[in-house]
Every structure is written in C-alpha cells, then in structure tokens.
Amino acid sequence: MIKTVDLKKTFTGRGQTVYAVDGVTANVEPGEVVVIIGPSGSGKSTFLRCLNGLETLTSGHIVIDGVDLADRKTDLNKVRREVGMVFQQFNLFPHKKVIENIVLAQMTVRKRDRAEAEEKARMLLEKVGIAEKEQEYPSRLSGGQQQRVAIARALAMDPKIMLFDEPTSSLDPEMVGEVLDVMKDLAREGMTMVVVTHEMGFAREVADRVLFMDQGKLVEEGTPEHFFTEPREERTKLFLKQVL
Amino acid sequence: MNSLSKQLWPWRILTVVILFLIAASLWAATKRIDYTWRWNRVPQYFAYNAETFEKIPFDGRVLIINRLGDTTSVELESESGEKLTLVVETPSLRVSEGEELFADDSIGSNSEWKAGPLTMGMLMTLWLSAVASFFGLIIGLVTGLCRVSKNPTLRSLSIFYVELIRGTPLLVQIFIFYFFLGTVLDIGRIVAGISALAIFAGAYVAEIIRAGIQSVPKGQTEAARSLGMSATQNMVHIVLPQALKRVLPPLAGQFISLIKDSSLVSVIAITDLTKSGREVITSTFATFEIWFTVALLYLLLTSVLSQLIAWVERRLAVSD
Ligand SMILES: Nc1ncnc2c1ncn2[C@@H]1O[C@H](COP(=O)(O)OP(=O)(O)OP(=O)(O)O)[C@@H](O)[C@H]1O
Ligand SMILES: [Mg+2]
Q: Would an 8 Å CB–CB cutoff place A160 in contact with chain B?
C-alpha cells in the first residue's frame, strides 16, 4: 500500500543542512497499523508528512497504491484525498462550524452534493461520539472533541490510508483515552494506519508493526512483542528505557 | 467594577476641564483678533430654498385664478387667443383676474429645497471614497495574492507597485494621474481622481492582505491540502476568510484614511467636500465656521464608517 525506497528529506537553512529523513526504506501493507516511535527531532513527523506530499522529498521514492510521489507528473491532490492526515494541533478550520469542517472538502474535492456530504458528516460524528456538537464552532470544543472532529473530517474523504502525527500529544491526559478509542475502532475495522505516537500502550495493543527512528534513520522495526521484550539495537533499548 | 468607576471619576472631570479650557482659550484667541462668528450663515450651504419665478411667455391677460389651497392655478390668454395654465404657490401670487400682462412678467413663484454645496461636496467625497475603496480593495486583494504567490514575476511586480506607491506622495500621484495619464489616456478629472485614490489605497491594502494571509497558521493550509484541496480552494475557502477577518481593523483604518486623503483631489478641481468648503468661503468670508464645519463633516463620515466596521466585526466574532 505504501512503499518508501531510500527516502531522504533535507532542510537547508542558514548554511546548515538537516538530514530530517535519511534514507528510510519501509513498507506498509493494506490493513496494517504501523506505529512510528523515536526521540524528538528524529524525523518522524517529516517522514509522515512526506507520505502525503506535505513535504517534497529530496531523493528516493514513495509509492502509494502504485503511484510514485517522486514522479513530477503525479497529481498530489489526487493522492492526498486517498491519504487522510490527523495533526497534533488538530488544525480544524476555526471559521467553520463542526459540520462544515467535515462537509467542505467532501463538496469541493469529492464533488458530493450538500445533502450527501452532511449525511456522511453526521454519520461520522456519530461514530466518533460527538453528534450533538455539529453546530458548534471548533473553539467551543475540548481538545479531545476537536481531535475527534479532525479524525471525522479526514475519514469523510474515504481515505485508504490514515496518517496520525502525535494525535494525543497536545491533549490533557483525561482526553487521551477518547481519541485512542476512536483510533482503535478504526484499526479494528481494517483501516491502514501509520501512527506517530508516544503512547506505548497504544503501540503495544494495536500496532501490527513498530518502526523506531533516530536521527532520520529507520533503526529497527518489528512486532510490538519483539520491541517491548527483546529489542536488538542499543539505541532502541536506550529509548525504551527512557519512555517506559 | 463599582470601585473602579469611582476611581475614574476625578479623571473624567479632569478631562472635561481640560477640554473646556482648550475651547475657552480658542474662544479668547478669536476674541482678541476681533472675529465675528457668523454660524447662522452656515446652514444655508447645506440646503436652501430655491425660488423659481413663473413668467408669462407672451403679452396677454389673466383669465381665471383658481385657488387650490397651497397652490393656485392661473389661466392666461394671449392676444392671439392662445391659452396657458401656470401653477404657483398661493402666497407668491402677484396678479389678479383680468389684469393685463406683458411677456416675461412674473405671476408668482414656486420654491423648492435644494442641497447646498456642502451637502453636494460631502456626497462627492462619499462617492469618491466609496468607489476608490471598492477598486482599492480589489486591486489590493489581487496584489496581496500576487505578493504571496510562488511565481517570482508576480511577486516582483507586486513589490514594485507597492514600493512605488508607498514611496511617493499622494498629492504628486494625483497630479501625475490628472496631468499625465489624464492627457495621454484622455480621461476626465473624476476618473483620474478616483483612479489615483484607488491605486494609492490598493498598495496599502495589498500589504494588509499579505500580512493577513501570512498570519493564518500554516497548519490550516496543511490541513486543507491534506484533504486534497487545491492551492486555490485552500486560498478561497480556508485562508482568505480567516485572513480577511483578521485584517478587518487595519482595513477599516485604511478606508478611513482614504476618506480623509480624498480631500487632496480638490487640487484637480473636483468639487469634493474640501473644495466646496473653499468655494463657500469665497462667498461668505465665514472662514473659521466653514472649516470647522468641513472638519466635522469629515469626522461624521469617518465615525459612521468605523461604527459600521465595528458592527461587521461583532457579527464575524461568533466563531471565536
Ligand atoms: N520546515 C523545517 N525547516 C527546517 N528544519 C526542519 C523543518 N521541519 C523539521 N525540521 C528539522 O528536521 C528534524 C526532524 O524533525 P521532525 O519534526 O520530523 O521530528 P519529530 O521526530 O517529529 O520530532 P517530535 O517528536 O519533536 O515531533 C528536526 O531536526 C527539525 O529541526
Ligand atoms: Mg513531530
């Protein structure tokens, strides 16, 4: 479903070159839940953002559903509608009501009519458990509710893949659970997911595979059991000792 | 709240006292130069009662006078038997039945309220500012979008335009528009004046719009793009609505400035509020009164506009 080959992304600024993603080769199978962990600044977000073209890659290839993002002829907008993304900061559209947040892209991108888009939006709000908030503006919602709206908004495009970049990191602890529950449901339904998170419990429970990144490199990958019981690499051991 | 407003009391009084002292010293100053205030002359320049005399176009006589209350109809007959009926206001009637009249004798008059030069000037200022604001907004919007575009040519051109306009005085721009473009393109003074104002405002609006667009968090664009929206859709549905809401206060300031700056077009003989004021002074010599009145009228226009914008802002604040 997703395949990256020697993916590199560098940032240059003030005469310095940062190797944010430094030669990552990985793949994600359909229906698989892949969790990416790693220390801060290790390039997890950058890697994820490359996957839906929010960052242009410096070299290498990303093939999503048979389409190469590195190919100049690829229409990124087309790829992006198949790849939903949920951000740490929610990024809801503050000038639009909750329902409009979910309806907008359905109408402008998927060309659905309003009735159909609203029906879909209500169905998804029901699913993430905040049907009663559809007429509110995002600023009136708690962090957890906002993040669930953001998930519903991404799902409304019927994506084949969902990317999550630390979806619970800016939430108060008591709201983390409600968002993780929605994500677990999604995983159970067979959604292909790539999740950057510091929630080791989620990784252990839901992930099919865990990738550990450090300094832009994919250091180790394996099943959760492998990771949390017998990690191979020194760096992985060190990291897990710090977070667990 | 209550204790706070109590604390404010002495300050309020002090403010009033200072304002009073300023007014009093102004009054004393005019006393010293022996200026006679003639405020009673001012109202007629807002509106006046214009009297038009109805005249008999031929030699003849009055046949019948028919009083209809406020107005009176007068039937006239010429020496050749031609008949004509005129209507005048009853109190102004100055003929009686059977009276012989010569051509161009007046039989009475009709009066009508007309807008005076100050009102006309204010309307002109309002019209100039409104049209210039409208085009200024469009020019500014387009330029602002060019300013943040990925295309280097569009970017450079918009920077060039903005710097050119912001680096030269509006008065000089108005002269160039009127004398140079006005002659070359053969446009009238009003069009030249409005264009100069619109292009002047556009440059400032462009900078405001650019700042507004750049103040919308990057995450908004990323969210929109990650949903598959194109750059244009993102701009139209996500970035611009938020940007415009943020820039409403500085935009309002810009349009208020434009109302004031529009007074400069009086130099190319457009009869706006300022020019009307100057014309009125030449016939009344009530120099002080008229300039104070003109200032008040500008103040009226600008404060109505700022109230209007404040209302729009409150309407838009519902999503905060
Ligand atoms: N737009 C950018 N310009 C310059 N450098 C950047 C940019 N984005 C990321 N970087 C750099 O790339 C590196 C990887 O950043 P990234 O955000 O991917 O890390 P991360 O693993 O997501 O970290 P965190 O856990 O803190 O979110 C960092 O050194 C960061 O400073
Ligand atoms: Mg990150």
A: no
